[in-house]
Amino acid sequence: MPKYWMISNRNATASDLGKNRSDTLSFFTADSGNLKDFKNWQPCTAAAFRAALISAADSFPLIPETEHEKQKHVTVFVHGYNNDWRDAAARYQQITDDLYSGPKSLGICVLFTWPSNGATAHYLADREDARASGPALAKVFNTLFEHSLLMQQKAADGTALCKAKVSVIAHSMGNWVFQNALFYTWERNNKPLLVSLINQCVMVAADVDNDLFGNGEALSDNRSEGMANLCYRITALYSGRDSVLGVSAGLKHFGKRRLGRSGLDRSPAFLAPDNVWDFDCSALFPVKERDIHSAYFWTPKTQAVIRAILQGYDRNIIAG
């Protein structure tokens, strides 16, 4: 079984992944080595990737419902802006090695890398690439949605049991990619209200408006509607110490505050769905930490929070 998995809508060559969007998705797996070295990735077809991923998930242990916190995950990690594919691969490898390896492994993590330009000066260009990458990521979620329905049907008639949960970790502007992707999945599948495609969604330092879920649970044309209805629970991790999102707010200069810097909108008119909550991580970072925007992924205390969220512990227990 491969240890590392990658899907991309970047333009792919025989020796690299580029900075431009592609109309087709590329699929890769790797067993070991430095993932920033493209030679360590083996390309494969969409069918082969899907078959291998299904087989790997089927090897997970069957966990009693009363111990659901121990159930394994298939997690999609969506990186942020200012990342070329090598930066994204390095961050993904660190997350996989820390949270998805060894006896306490959460399961399998899959990297979705979109064509961020890898430069701070290209913020607005990255934002457009992030929006335009939504349909590509939606193809991944559509496939997961179809497989989820199939497994639920088999579980209902007693021919199979589901061994894995689907979860998402989205970082920074990757949350804008994710938001757009679930909107397309939500629309394509006729706004299903009886299916939770994603068990846990962790929005890390999200570079999106903090009134994203302001419509509550009402049906609307808001692009966040798909997120609130296709996810069992959404957790936004934020910190007022995040200087990167302070710059982002200045560059955007319209709309609302950044969710990853200010948390959910606290105004009286804001009505978040019951399955959406936020958690201030400011006190969990070392005092001298300078890169708060990315430190969620290597700080032990925030790693523990991310693990507990994915395991499905109650929010009050996590906060405590």
TrEMBL record:
Recorded protein name is Alpha/beta hydrolase
List the Pfam families hit by this protein, alphabetically: DUF900
Species of origin: Nibricoccus aquaticus
Among InterPro entries, the record links this protein to: AB_hydrolase_fold, DUF900_hydrolase
